[in-house]
Design a protein that fits this description.
This protein has four helices and four strands. 78% of the residues lie in helices and 5% in strands. By secondary structure, it is mainly alpha-helical. It has a four-stranded mixed beta sheet with strand order 2-1-4-3. Helix 1 packs antiparallel against helix 2. The mean pLDDT is 94. The chain has two domains: 165 residues, Helix Hairpins, CATH 1.10.287.1490; 51 residues, no CATH class. It starts with a helix and ends in a 6-residue tail after the last strand. The radius of gyration is 40 Å and the shape is rod-shaped. A hairpin with a 6-residue loop joins strand 3 and strand 4. Bound molecules: zinc ion. The site of zinc ion has 8 residues, from loops. Zinc ion binds next to loops.
């Protein structure tokens, strides 16, 4: 086989290997990033709960203030009742008292309702805080695991880069430029095998003449349909 062709086949394999590291790195990082995202989401839940609790506390203290005012009013009314002269005054005082008592009942119910909400939100906060503690503890071991995986991947990648550097030093520059031009659009299918007289890049049948050129492999032959570099696997030669 033409040595230049062999070099381009080798280069295409190395480039494919280099590209294959990306998803491996992403996969390694995924677990850690997922755990980190979960931590952030729980932290924001806790913050939201804390704000909501504050809001409910404000509502509760408004009701408590109102309650204090009402009880003061009721106290004043009971003092006044001693000085009542007419039946009309009496009725008016009674009406005021009834209204105030209704408001007291309502305020007490509202406070009880708000307290339940606050209690529930505090329970939710405790649960969230507990899972945050658990998650933070596991986050470290996840990080260590990811770092170890990345270290291995980087070592392998470094070895492939060295192989590529070496090959780039030997490869025919004209052939390399040709390869790189095709690779811009064909990516990892720049150099493809021919299978049953079809280009494995575009899957079109090539003519007998082109096929025999590919088999001879004396020169670099490209697919007449798509322009990819063609070769035959050893068992087909
Ligand atoms: Zn083709």
């Amino acid at each position: 086989m033409n040595n230049h062709l062999q070099q381009l086949i080798d280069l295409s394999i190395i480039d494919k290997d280099i590209d294959a590291f990306e998803p491996q790195i992403e996969e390694a990082n995924y677990n850690y990033e997922a755990a980190l995202a979960k931590t952030k989401s729980i932290e924001s839940d806790i913050e939201n709960l804390s704000n909501e609790i504050k809001e409910e506390e404000v509502k509760k203290s408004k009701n408590e203030l109102h309650l204090a005012e009402l009880s003061q009013k009721l106290e004043e009314n009971s003092k006044k009742s001693g000085d009542v002269k007419t039946e009309r005054e009496m009725k008016s005082l009674q009406l005021e008292e009834e209204i105030a008592k209704e408001q007291v009942t309502f305020a007490n119910e509202e406070i009880a309702r708000l307290e339940k909400i606050i209690e529930l939100k505090k329970e939710q906060t405790e649960v969230a805080e507990a899972s945050l503690v658990e998650l933070s503890a596991s986050l470290e071991s996840v990080k260590a695991d990811v770092d170890k995986k990345l270290e291995t991947i980087n070592k392998d990648r470094q070895a492939v880069f060295i192989k590529k550097e070496k090959l780039l030093g030997e490869v025919n520059q004209k052939g390399l430029a040709f390869y790189q031009k095709i690779r811009r659009w064909a990516k990892n299918t720049t150099v493809v095998p021919v299978d049953e007289q079809a280009c494995m890049g575009c899957h079109m049948i090539i003519s007998d003449k082109v096929y025999s050129d590919v088999i001879k492999a004396e020169e670099i032959t490209t697919c007449p349909h798509c322009g990819r570099i063609l070769y035959t696997k050893p068992n087909e030669e």
